[in-house]
Amino acid sequence: MAVVVTEEIGLPSWDLYELSIPCTVFGKAQADLADPWYELMLCGTGEGERPKDADAAAGTGLVLRTGHGLDDLVGADTVIVPSVPDACVEEGKPLPEALILALRRAYDAGARMVSLCTGAFALAEAGLLDGRPATAHWQHTAQLAERYPKVRVDDSVLYVDDGDVLTSAGLTAGLDLCLHLVRRDFGAHVANQLARRMVVPAHRPGGQAQFIDLSVPATDDDALAPVLDWARSHLDRPLTVRDLALRAAMSPRTFYRRLQAATGTTPLQWLLTQRLGRAQSLLESTDLPIEKIGELSGLGTANNLRHHFLRHIGVSPSEYRRAWRQTVC
């Protein structure tokens, strides 16, 4: 089990978190569960350079050094890329060519390839996700899809198992995928027992759709802002495209066109998204019955609320509320 480590100073804390996940799951022998266990190697991308200014050193301020290099990826049974530097995702900074070549060589040698969160950008750059389903943190899936159009990006799932190539969403979804690997390699009993020791669920219901921010995209169309604000304040009412168009002093056709141009979605889909967001907020912050939340959000009956939650969020309202309360606690 070879884990790629970006050797640099000032790694953000979330990168350290994702790096720690495979170290925790695979790095400590569990002889009473399975013997032999995994043999873990941390493989560095090269000597990191100390930034010359304080801003570049922001973050943890740690310098990471490993006992193995990229050449050691070849021959590993599984290669994991926990993340890539933010600059490679947000600013399009090129990934080290040596890393991309090493990933290709490892795959060609028969390794199972795994990414956690933004590590998917490295696998995509190596061409290993072409024509495959894949995921990453929902905040980065649009960038992944735009930069690598051959990848079938799914922003709704916690992880994707495509046989010899697996990808996960961000942060704790990486733990879900690592436990899934244990389940694949040693069976459900071993994975469940390991999850109990780590005090985490062996399997979480739903996908990352339940965590996606459903707030409306920003728009420069000042004429739409007042009517959209009004609609968000009256989601419990029956609202039609004609109602909103009249309030905006536009024809329904013009309103439809301008809202779609401003938000990238249709008026009815925009309303549904806002109502789902309202229902999520009420489930998180109140003890109101499901039926009442359906009414206040404009989604109608409890059955209708459940239908839309299962279809768009991936879990039932009760499961969503339970998961949120567990997260808060």
Automatic annotation (TrEMBL):
Keyword tags: DNA-binding, Transcription, Transcription regulation
Signal peptide: none
Gene3D superfamilies the record matches: 3.40.50.880, Homeodomain-like
Lineage top rank: taxon: Bacteria
Pfam family, one: DJ-1_PfpI
Segments forming domain HTH araC/xylS-type: 225-323
Record-linked PROSITE patterns: HTH_ARAC_FAMILY_1 (PS00041), HTH_ARAC_FAMILY_2 (PS01124)
Example of a GO MF term: sequence-specific DNA binding
Record InterPro entries: Class_I_gatase-like, DJ-1/PfpI, Homeodomain-like_sf, HTH_AraC, HTH_AraC-typ_CS, INH-QAR
The protein's name: AraC family transcriptional regulator
Naturally occurring in which organism (per UniProt): Streptomyces bingchenggensis (strain BCW-1)
